[in-house]
Structures are given as structure tokens and as C-alpha cells.
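assembly run, all chains below
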Amino acid sequence: MTRRRLGLPYLLLLPALALELLIHLVPMVVGMVMSFKRLTQFYIRDWSTAPWSGLDNYRVSVDFSAPIGRSLLNSFWVTCLFTALAVGFSWLLGTAAAVFLQESFRGRGLLRTLFLVPYALPVYAAVITWSFMFQRDTGLVNHLLVDQLHLFDEKPFWLIGDNSFTALVVVAVWKTWPFAFLTLMAGLQNIPRELYEAAAMDGAGVWQQLRKITLPSLRPVNQVLVLVLFLWTFNDFNTPYVLFGKSAPEQADLISIHIYQSSFVTWNFGAGSAMSVLLLLFLLLVTAVYLFLTSRRRGADA
Amino acid sequence: MRINRLAAATALVSVLTLTATACGGGSTSGGGDNSSPKTLTYWASNQGTSLEHDKQVLEPELRKFEAQTGIKVKLEVVPWSDLLNRILAATASGQGPDVLNIGNTWSASLQATGALLPFDDATFGKIGGKDRFVPSTIASAGAAGKAPAAVPLYSMAYGLYYNKKLFEAAGISKPPATWDELVTDGQKLTKDGKYGLAIEGGNVSENVHHAFAFGKQHGADWFDAAGKPAFATPEAVAAIKQYVDFIAKDKIAAPGNAEYAANQSVTDFASGKAAMLMWQAAGASLKSHGMNPDDYAVAPIPLPAGASGGKATSSMVAGINLAVFKNSKNTEGALQFVKFMTGNEEQIQLNKTYGSIPPVKDAQADPAFATPELKTLSNVLATSAAPLPQVANESQFETLVGTAVKNLLAAAAAGKPVTEDSVKAELTKAQQQMPAG
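ok done. output:
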């Protein structure tokens, strides 16, 4: 009896496990195998016939003295800065909005709905609208900044050159912060109101309540939220692809686009796979360190 | 806390696996249903004003084909931006359509994958013979010395579109024939917020087409005799610099053109914001933007003074080819369809609708193609057009050199100096990113 009860849950898990293997693990292993092959257009009909190239693809990817490696490194730094800014701003905005909307007031429901609009819109439609707004000569952004507010003498470019990075961060934050807002709003619901009432009785102001009650109570939510935002943002493909097309400006060349370009635009699938594996290793490392640090801190708190 | 741990781990796994699978081969949807010999799947590239427009144009023709042969054709119109990736995915999976459109410049690259049916003499025999086609269009259907990977379907060439009214107002009596004249005219026309020339600087393909033709005029071939890339030659540097200088030095094109990628240059020309435009078969688009056909004319794209031979190349051979997937289980039916589409009647009908030129000689004789615009362009095609390098690495050349030009134009637009050294550096970088072998 007990044996059957023990076996059943695993049996029930089996279909999901099989699918997980099929959908995720198999392509992952295939991708890793590909990274050791010289896979170009000559072999894509049957990639298994491509000649082995050992570590060549990895060597090329991390040879920072040659263009392929150098541009990968550039793209890596761009992505790090982009992720730090996009996650940082999204988190700040999300927290501010969630705390602000915690008190009930007239129009709160409407604001909540409005804040979630970017999250509900299809990414493609939203980002392509941004790309229209960022057009130099006819876009709304320059119309506002230059024609209305007279902030610049000459209309800046947003989709090419140095400003493209700023444009990318703006769109990413716009797209991402509602998720932070939604998650944190849910987290706030779990904080007992009595804590605030007691704190208020003791004479704690709004800032003190925020620092001593709200933020510590949100820590477990934030731990997951920041990790998820980091991983999503670091891998973001849709935003740069829709905003800039297949060849992003160097200043905004995110790693996902970079790998896509190496694989599918220059048809260097082997090198693209190697870069993917390197990215995977990097993200694994960062996440492991992050989980280690956060769980240790949790242990100390307890 | 365990819940959070679990949530974090789940999120991690799902996001990470996505990363690693990004290169595990593209997904492919649909694919041809080859089980029955009475059906074919056809991927048509987007040629009309919209995907829907293409369907409206093509479906009556496909019904005609069904009436003639009893073979039903399932049509899918693929947006231009997706086409190459879709073909690659179909090639990798073996699940493709029976018949498909390819950009003619990709011919040799796709030929190298071995996924397309070679059109040897016997195969050509089944569709009415090779001699029916204009030779330059066959030359852009695969590597020299190999059986073509496709047959030409719609042809196009670049011409210089110029605004007659603006020319008249500026006191210019004829279109420029040399680059010096173009720059002089352009500077006369650049005033009051209007510009002499409109270019599509953010569009990688557009850039590489001009890079190629300008390069030919300077004697740059982009690939050496052994098929190895040679992007950073002095000739190529001079060619690209000449193009980028339209914004950087001559200032006859608006700096804003550097980010154009959605045919805004055509709109600028149609609305009179720019007086000249180098484009392939723009007539239909100009009409849809409301430009009066009497207000513009077309001339061949200028050449350097005294250019002759290969240096007198004024355009690449542009166009769409029709290919048959080697995996098709209905090759005979597919060839019947190719024969139908390249037959005189369909050639006249479809090229007329799309404003392109029939690559089939007999069809070209139809009065519909005797407009001044198309006569100029078909003359360019016959006398001064050259196909892009027909080498296996062509598609990478397109993207990398096209991107290099885009970067240089972006620098020029931002007011940064564009020198021979900076052009050479960009081209060197492009070449070093070409995959080996």
C-alpha cells in the first residue's frame, strides 16, 4: 500500500518530465553539440554531418583581439549596463507605484489598470509604436523634446548612434516595470495592516514604515522578482529586434541579438551556439552566486 | 521560504533553457503537405502593397493553374523580412514548401545548402528552355559553372528617379549622367528644407546594393578569384566613401536619411521633399503615395565620367527567383507550376501588376512594359547591370557590408568625420566577421 502511494506521484510526474526533456533538454544538448561543430550553410540540411571543430568556436568567441570576440565582449558590457539600468528603474518604479497605490483613494482602480497597460499590450505592437515615436524627423519624442520643450537645438537621433542605448532602456523599463508593480502589489497585500497601525501608534513616520516594515516584508518577493527581471532583461530579444531590426547599433547591441546575428544572419551557427553556451554558463554562475548570497542572508535573519 | 526557492529555480530553468535553445535550430510551422501529388505548397514573397494584396493577386492565377492541371496550390505569402529565416528553417528541418520565392541575390548561398532543385538542361527543358530568359537574370540564379538553383520570376533594376518640376525650378535641363553632375545638381536642389537626394540608410539590403554597384564602378569585386572576401580594398573604400559622402561631405541627402528603413526615402521623393531617388521599379509605390506620374522621370543611375566595361555597371541585377525544394514529393507538379508561372501569359500579368520587368524575353515585348520607366530599367538590366557576387557566402556579405555602410551613415549623420581610415576600419571589421570556409 505505502509503496504504491509512494510510486504514484512519480508516475503522475512522468508525462511532464518526458515533455520537459523533449522540449527543453534535447534542444539544449543539441545546441551544445552544435557548438563543437563547424556548422555553416553547407551543412544545415543535416547538421550532424558538419565537421567537428573542437573548441574553435569557443576560441573565436573569446578571442578579444579579433572582431568577433571584441564585438561579443562589447555586446556583453552593453547588456550588463542595460540590465542594471532597466532592472533598477523597473524595480524602483514598480515599488513606488505599488506603495503609492496601497492606500485606497478615488481613482485607484483606474490607475492600477492604466499601469498594467504596457504589460497587457502585445510586445511587437508596443515596441513598433515606440520605434515610430523615436523617428528623428517625424517622431513624437523629438516633437515633444525639441519643438515643444526646446530642450535641444538640433533633433537627436534615437534609433542610430549613441542615443540608441537610451531609447532601448526607456522602452525596456516601460515594458518591464508593470510586472514589478504587479508582483509587489501582490506582496504588499500579505503585510498585516496591524503592523502599520502599531508603528503609527509608536510614532513612526511614512519613511520609517517603509524602511522598517514594507521593504523587509517584501524581501522574499523581491528576491525572486529581481532574479526573474535580471534573467528576462539580460536575455531580452524582442525589444531590440523590433526597435532596431536585424542589425542593432553597436551602442545597443544586446547579447541576444548579437547571438542571433552570429547564428542566423551570418549563418555561423556553430559560433552562435558556442556563444549561447557561454551565456548560459554566465547566467548560471550569476544565479548560483545570487541564490547562495540571498539564502545565506535569509539564514542569518532567521 | 521554500516556495520562493522553488519559484526562483523554476524561473531560472525556464529562462535558461530558452537561451540555450535559441540556437538549437529554428522552429518551423506548417510545411508542405506532400502526401498527395494533386497539391502543392507555394511560398510567395511579399511583392504587393500588403500580404492581403498579394493573395488577391495570386489566388485567381492559382485557380487558373488548378483548372489547367488539376493541381491545387496552397498559397502562403511570406513577409520579406522573414523569408530568409523561413527558408533556412525549412532547409534545416526538411519540411518546406514545394515551390518558393527567393531573393535572387541569395541564389548561390541557398544553392550551397543543397536544398534546392538544380535547374540543369533537362529540368530547364521541362519548363520550356533556358533561352527564353534574359541572360543577366539567369546569371543571378546561382554560382557560375553550376546548374542554376532557381529560375527568374520578376526582374528589377535600379534607376535614378528625378522630380521634373524641381529640376525645372532649379534650372536643370536633364538628369545627371555622371556623379559629379549628380552632386552639383543635388547641391542646387538642396534648399528650403528640401534635399537633392533621398537614401535609405538604415536599410541593410539597400545599402549593400549601392555598395556593390558603386564598388563595380571603382573596380572593387568584394570577393577575390578564389571566392575569398576582399572587402577592405582601396577601391571598395573609395566606393563606400562616395556613397556616405552624400550625407557627410556633399550634404545633398538629409542626415535623417541615415535611419530610414521603412521606405521613407520613397515617401520623401513622392512628397517632393527630395528631388532624386535611386530605386528599383518605384512606379507602383510612387503612385500609391499619390505622386503624379507626369512629375517624375527615370534615368540610368550615373556613372563616373568615362567609365567603360565592368566599371560602367549602374545597377545590380535585382529580382525574385522561383525555386523548387529538393525535398518536394511532387517535383513534376512543382515543375509544371514553374512552367506556368514563367509562361508568357502569367509573366505579363504578374509583372504588370507588380510594376516589375519580366525576365522572359517574349513577355518583355508586351506593350505594358513599354512605359518610359520600364524601358529605361529593362535597358539597364540588359546592358549595365551585374549580378551580386554569386558565391556561397553572399548572404553574409549582404548583411555585413550593408551594416558597415549603415554604421558609417549613422556616424556621418551625427556629424562625426568619415575618413578613408574609418571606412576601411568598418569594412575590415565586416570582413573579419565572415565565417571561415
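The longest helix of chain B spans residues 2-21.

Residues 183 and 250 of chain B are 7 Å apart (CA to CA).

not gonna interpret more than that til we talk
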